[in-house]
Write a structure and sequence with these properties.
Layout: H1 4-7, H2 9-28, H3 34-61, H4 67-85, H5 91-116, H6 124-142, H7 148-187
Helix pairs in contact: 2-3, 2-7, 3-4, 4-5, 5-6, 6-7
Length: 190
C-alpha cells in the first residue's frame, strides 16, 4: 500500500465532520418533519458518494485498488438521487432505502478495515464505524414504523458515532503518514 490512503486522510475527516454536523442537527431538532429528514439524508448520501468517488479516482491514478470506493460512492449517489427525485416517497420506503444504504456501507467499511489491518493500526475505528452502520440499518429494518422523531434521534446518534470514528481514523492515518512516510516509500510498501 502506498501512502495514497494516508495522504487522503483529510477526506475521511471531512466525511466524519459532515456526519457529526448532521447528527448534531438531527438531535438538536428531533421533531423535524419527514421531508426535512429526506433532504438531510439525501444531502449526506450525495456528499458521501462524491467523496468516495473522488477517493476512487485518486486511487486509480496511483494504481491502487479503487473498486470498493466506487461501489460505495455509487451507492451513496444513487441513494441521494432517489431521495431527491421522489421527495414525497413514503416514510416506509425511505426508511428501507436508508437502512439498505447503511448496511451496504457498513459491510464495505468492515471489508476495508480488514485489508487495512495489514498496514496500519487503528483500522478498528473503520471496522467499528462499519458495525455502527450495520446496527443502524438493522434497527431501521426491525422498527420501520417507529416514527420520524425516533428515526431522527437514531440517525443523529449514528451519524455522530460514525463521524467520530471516521475523524479518528483520518487523524490516525495522518499520524501514520508522518511517522512512516519517508521509510515506506523506500521499502516499497504496496
Amino acid at each position: 500500500m502506498s501512502l495514497l490512503l494516508a495522504s487522503n486522510w483529510w477526506s475521511l475527516v471531512i466525511r466524519g465532520l459532515v456526519a457529526i454536523l448532521l447528527g448534531i442537527l438531527a438531535l438538536a431538532w428531533p421533531g423535524i418533519t419527514l421531508s426535512a429528514l429526506v433532504l438531510l439524508f439525501g444531502a449526506y448520501a450525495l456528499v458521501d458518494g462524491v467523496v468516495n468517488l473522488a477517493g476512487a479516482w485518486r486511487a486509480s491514478k496511483a494504481h491502487e485498488r479503487w473498486g470498493v470506493l466506487v461501489i460505495e460512492g455509487v451507492a451513496g449517489i444513487v441513494a441521494g438521487l432517489v431521495t431527491f427525485a421522489w421527495p414525497a416517497i413514503t416514510a416506509l420506503a425511505l426508511i428501507y432505502v436508508i437502512a439498505a444504504w447503511a448496511v451496504v456501507t457498513g459491510i464495505l467499511e468492515i471489508a476495508a478495515a480488514t485489508k487495512l489491518r495489514k498496514h496500519i493500526s487503528g483500522e478498528w475505528l473503520l471496522a467499528l464505524s462499519g458495525v455502527a452502520s450495520i446496527i443502524f440499518g438493522i434497527l431501521l429494518m426491525a422498527y420501520p414504523l417507529a416514527g420520524a422523531l425516533v428515526i431522527a434521534i437514531w440517525f443523529g446518534v449514528y451519524a455522530i458515532v460514525f463521524g467520530a470514528m471516521l475523524v479518528g481514523l483520518g487523524f490516525r492515518l495522518r499520524t501514520w503518514a508522518k511517522t512512516i512516510g519517508g521509510t515506506s516509500a523506500a521499502v516499497g510498501i504496496s
